Amino acid sequence: MSAGCREVPPDLFGDTAGATSTSAGTPGTGGGSGTAGGGGGEAVGNGGHGGNGGTGGTGGDGGNGGHGNPAGTTAGSGGAGGGCDEVAWYCDADSDAHGDRNVVVEACDAPRGGDDGCAGPYVASSDDCGPNDANAHPGAEAYRAEPMAPPARGGSEFDFDCDGTATPDPEQLFGGTGTLECDRLDCIRPNPPEGYGVDAECGSTSEYYRCDQSIGERCAPRAAEAPERLRCR
Q1: 115 in helix, strand or coil?
Q2: Which regions of the chain does DSSP assign to beta strands (E)?
Q3: What is the distance of C-alpha 217 from the center of its chain?
Q4: pLDDT at 79 over 90
Q5: Distance (Å, rounded) from C-alpha 148 to C-alpha 128?
Q6: Residue 146, pLDDT score
Q7: pLDDT computed for residue 179 by the predictor
């Protein structure tokens, strides 16, 4: 050391490592908080910026490092996590794309289902009148002689198309309408008109008629053996 010069103490200006810290806080996840930024040594060091708090907000700045303290101590506060609008989902136990209005959950997305709570998936519709029978749903076209699997919704267990009415198969009704009328020639035809009367019950074999004429009597519909049960939808 040359004469006239004094040695500068190493701690006169503080630890140069205590300059502004550039280390960033650890990003928060979801609604979490960012980790505090690094602080200074002897000099006052600025704390790092708190991490993003997930969708919904950005974390705050970390606190300043105190004089002689090793790091900032205030963690960045994370933003709230993102949300959604929950909607109603209905159990489709028979997997016919129509749900049961009596089994409903509120959720952002359709629950998986397929468990004790719901044997099938969950769907957005709630218009199934036969939630346990895949043959029963709005728009069903087939006529059936057996009632739907219970419990039925919307009235009759034969209302397979869910329109509120059990409609007999017109091909099985007497004259296509169920009205019992016989023409004077019907009784001598090879295949006289026959079918169910208008009051016949769905799934039954009663009230089935065929045009017939006994000796000395006029032609009229008479009870006959039904070839099959009356189908309805």
Answers
A1: coil
A2: 87-91, 100-107, 122-123, 194-196, 208-212, 220-223
A3: 64
A4: no
A5: 12
A6: 97
A7: 95
Q: Above 70 in pLDDT, residue 207?
A: yes
If we measure between CA atoms, which residue out of 105, 129, 1, 15 comes closest to residue 65? 15
Q: How far is residue 211's CA from residue 39's CA, in Å, rounded to a whole number? A: 105
Q: How far apart are CA 12 and CA 200, in angstroms?
A: 109
Please give the Cα distance from 114 to 108 (Å, whole number): 18
If phi > 0 it is left, if psi is from -120 to 50 it is alpha, else beta; for residue 101 that is: alpha
Give the closest residue to 103 by CA, choosing from 80, 119, 84, 81.
Answer: 119
Which residues partner with 104 through β-bridges? 90
What six digits make up the tokens of 23?
């280390």
pTM for the predicted model, two decimal places: 0.61
What 3-state DSSP class applies to 168?
Answer: strand
Helix or strand holding residue 157 (H, E): none
Residue among 191, 131, 140, 128 nearest 169 (CA): 140
DSSP 34-90: PPPPB--SSSPBPPPBPPP-STT----BPPPBPTT-SB--PPPPPPPPP----EEEE
Q: What is the mean pLDDT of the chain?
A: 76
- The token pair that represents 230 in the structure block: 């009356």
